[in-house]
């Protein structure tokens, strides 16, 4: 059984304002929930149509699940977890930074890419979509448990950092011919506008993915696919 | 002015059945429509709130545009184009083949990637989402005008082809260490199930993208990001 009040409290976690106020977020589906349960994330409530054999579990009906789910097709269970307190950013290793990324699907894909390529720290400008947005949580497939996402004043951070800052630009150096280090910060820009002028000032090395099509070919790659190719290049060459 | 009958005929092109019956598809927004207008695609009707100075143009109001648009936020214009008659597949160069890809966004991203990397031919199994689906058309950003998409019996085609067939598998050879040719067919699989068993039989070279995270890391990459990395590898090494 789930009360009207609980339904209200859960569904409003679909909004960033309430997630920040409560320090909570929702995850859905057996696979995704299990990834969070097997991590350091703290479970607050689990509403499920089939038992997980955990504490804080409430068995509910499909109809009740539908009332609290953010998915078009709810999948077995919905869990409420605490948003973890992050430690400090360590300026070492390969770091990815996002400048005002807007699309939840793109952020989810980039978090999965970071996980695949062993990038432990993802820095997001404050304008970047929230990583605890339900769409992002579902798109990451649990990678959020292994990648630390920091929302910061990116401009200020890049101004102070001693690491080399890389950015993708059309006029950058051919990434296949570039000598890429094992450490550094790779900046990816906004879907429509790319890297903003204020962030561009802090870029030390401009890189670009060569185009192989004819002159009329597409003018840009999607930010997640460009990120995939660039991370692959950083890891391949080291 | 736009009639009720016209509205019905246009909106039903959002369904594959009617696109195939009529041999027509819709494209929206100034930028995307201009890419098709500047290609060999044949315009049938253009409904727009601002003139394009072309024949077959009907000026309409924002309210009318809303009635025919497939977008949440309609953008200036909607055009109806003829689905082109394709020539025969040429078994040369680098070709991408999709085995039952279901997500329109992924197909759109892969068509853009083909365009970027100079892949002129994209083979789709009959179960793959239709490339003239409005979501795919919008996601391709005009790349559909430069990449020929063929819907075929993929199993039969791969059985007959003399080109080398490459497929991505977890247990494949490290793609960074592989000797990749300039010609061949790269098969990408379904989002949930990967490459099907019947298609797998025709794969001559199994390749894989190494994972750099720890052992617990994400079990797979999104098909579009995996495709991005693999196409980048094919082009980089030649």
UniProtKB/TrEMBL annotation, chains A, B:
Sequence ranges assigned to domain tRNA/rRNA methyltransferase SpoU type in this UniProt record: 94-231
The MRM3-like substrate binding domain sits at 5-79
> Keyword S-adenosyl-L-methionine, does the record have it?
no
Chain ranges passing through the membrane: none
Q: Name one Pfam family in it.
A: MRM3-like_sub_bind
Homology family: Belongs to the class IV-like SAM-binding methyltransferase superfamily. RNA methyltransferase TrmH family.
Which molecular-function annotation in GO is an example for this chain? RNA binding
Q: Which Gene3D superfamilies match?
A: 3.30.1330.30, 3.40.1280.10
Q: List keywords of the entry alphabetically.
A: Methyltransferase, Transferase
Does the record's keyword annotation contain Methyltransferase? Answer: yes
Record GO biological process: methylation; RNA processing
The cross-references to SUPFAM superfamilies, in alphabetical order and at most eight, read: alpha/beta knot, L30e-like
- The source's superkingdom equals Bacteria
Q: What is this protein called?
A: RNA methyltransferase
């Amino acid at each position: 059984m789930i009360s009207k009040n609980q339904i209200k409290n859960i569904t409003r976690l679909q909004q960033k304002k309430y997630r920040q106020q409560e320090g909570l977020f929702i995850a859905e589906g057996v696979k995704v929930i299990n990834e969070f349960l097997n991590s350091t994330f703290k479970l607050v409530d689990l509403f499920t149509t089939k038992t997980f054999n955990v504490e804080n579990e409430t068995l509910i009906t499909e109809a009740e699940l539908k009332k609290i789910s953010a998915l078009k097709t709810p999948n077995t269970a919905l869990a409420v977890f605490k948003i973890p307190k992050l430690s400090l950013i360590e300026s070492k290793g390969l770091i990815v930074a996002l400048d005002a990324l807007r699309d939840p699907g793109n952020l989810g894909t980039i978090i999965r890419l970071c996980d695949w390529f062993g990038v432990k720290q993802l820095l997001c400008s404050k304008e970047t979509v929230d990583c605890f947005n339900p769409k992002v949580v579902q798109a990451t497939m649990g990678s959020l448990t292994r990648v630390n996402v920091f929302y910061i004043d990116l401009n200020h951070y890049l101004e102070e950092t001693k690491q080399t800052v890389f950015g993708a630009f059309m006029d950058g150096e051919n990434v296949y011919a570039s000598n890429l280090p094992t450490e550094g910060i790779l900046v990816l820009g906004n879907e429509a506008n790319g890297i903003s002028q204020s962030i561009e000032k802090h870029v030390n090395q401009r890189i670009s993915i060569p185009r192989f099509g004819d002159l009329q070919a597409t003018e840009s790659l999607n930010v997640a696919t460009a990120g995939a190719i660039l991370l692959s290049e950083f890891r391949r060459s080291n």
